[in-house]
Specification:
alpha+beta; Dna Ligase, domain 1; 9 helices; four-stranded parallel beta sheet; D-amino Acid Aminotransferase, Chain A, domain 1; Rossmann fold; 35% helix
Length: 282
Amino acid sequence: MTAPAATILYDTVRWEEKALSGAARRAGADVRMLDCRSLSLDVDGEARGYGTVLQRCVSYYRNVHSTAALEGMGARVINCLRTGMLAGNKLYTHMLLRKAGVAVPRATVSFSRDAALGAAGRLGYPCVIKPTVGSWGRMISRLSGAEAASGILEMREAMHPLYQVHYVEEFVKRPPRDIRAIVVGDRVVAAIYRHSDGWKTNMALGGRAEPCSVGAEMEDVCIRARDAVHGEIVGVDLMEDEARGLLVHEVNNTTEFKNTVRVCGVDIPSIMVSHALEAGRR
């Protein structure tokens, strides 16, 4: 049995995974869909029968561990382990973006309730507390003042150790929207504004999308953000600060793009599949 040209590795079938599979079929490409939950790897062996692996696992832990195993066995994985580990953690991403000279919101990290309260006070209320690992706006809270912060931090201290790393970010003064830009290879292929009636703009929480034109400044910021986490296919989330311009607040390793396709009319799945197939030929 010949190996496929590429494998789409997933743990949840979203619109995006179906669209990638459909794009591969339309292109006549030999691309296999593989559920990571069925995977058992002999990590002392060689990765045969996968081709280029397009990593689409939603779970951070399945994502980075399956990528580590497959790369260690010799497979070409997009995105690579460095990207999965770095972009999957908001603190890691923040530090790398700052080092690369990419503008980011001001942030603090603390390792106890009292230290986090002090940091939030110095940062200024309102501010936002986030888990370092997570998506879809879950477990992100707006801290309106010291009393609210104290209550939320007290709850977090009783949770999993992940939530006892208190990553607190400034509440950026911006329009009631943010920007999601999709980067494939060396270009931003499309971008959308994400509007919301509340302060969270995540589409999973009811945000509304409309096309966003990509100018030279945004293209430059997004490519530098991609490079900071060593990515190939990423989603870059930006905010428009009144004084500082574009700030990057997240880089997504297995980015969703359903709404970007819907409102921009760009065939992002085909572009991604083409990139993966070309990567396998290099």
